[in-house]
What we know:
Number of domains: 2
Distance between the termini: 29 Å
Largest sheet: 4 strands, parallel
Structural class: alpha/beta
Radius of gyration: 21 Å
Number of helices: 9
Strand content: 5-15%
CATH topology of the largest domain: TIM Barrel
Amino acid sequence: MAISTRNGPSLAALEACPPEVREILQAAMSGPELTFEQGLVLATADDSALQALVAVADHLRDATVGDAITYVVNRNINFTNVCFVGCSFCGFGRGPGAADAYSLSFEEMVRRAQEAWDRGATEVCIQGGLPRDLDGFFYRDLLRAIKRALPAMHVHAFSPGGALGGDHHRGARTGHSHHFHDDVWPRRRARRLGAAHAASSRDSKTHWWIYGVRSIGIHP
C-alpha cells in the first residue's frame, strides 16, 4: 500500500486510482464537503481506489493532528433497560414487568458519575431504553442533577429518539431543555440510519432520526 508523505499523500497512490476517485479525493483535500454521491463512491472503494483513499486520509490526519493520539476516560451509565420500542436487533431492552428490568434514581446516576470522576473520568455517556411512561422532563432533570454535582464533567448523552420522545411527552419544541448537556449520542448506539426501519417496523424512521440529530444540534 502506498504511504503518504509529510507534504501530501503519495502521488503514486493517487495516480494509480481511477480518475473518478482521484477527482473526489482531490476535492476532499481542498476543503469543501463532499456530496452524498461522492461519499458513496469512497465508501465502496476497493483495490487501488481504497489504497488512494487510505493515503489521503492519512495525509489529512497528519495535517490536522500530526502523530498525537488522544483519548478520553469515560463511563457508560444506563439509566434504565425498560423500553417499548422493541428493535429486532436489541438484546438490551426489557418490558416494564420483566424480572431483570431496572430504572436508576437520579441519586444513583449522580453517584456513579461522581465515582467515575473520582477515578479520573472526564466524561459520562448516558443511555437507556425508552419507557412508555417516562416523564417528559426526565432528561432535563437528570442532566441538571449531574451538571450541578459535576459542572466540569462532559455529558455525552441520549439518542435523538430519546430526546425527541422527551420533548413529545412535554409538548415542547425539540431541543429547548437540553441546556445542561454537551453532546447528544447518536454514534455509540448500535443503530444505522439506513437500516433503522428495516430492523424493526416499530423502530424510529430514518427521517425522524435525522430530524432529531439536526434539531438538537449534534456535532458531526
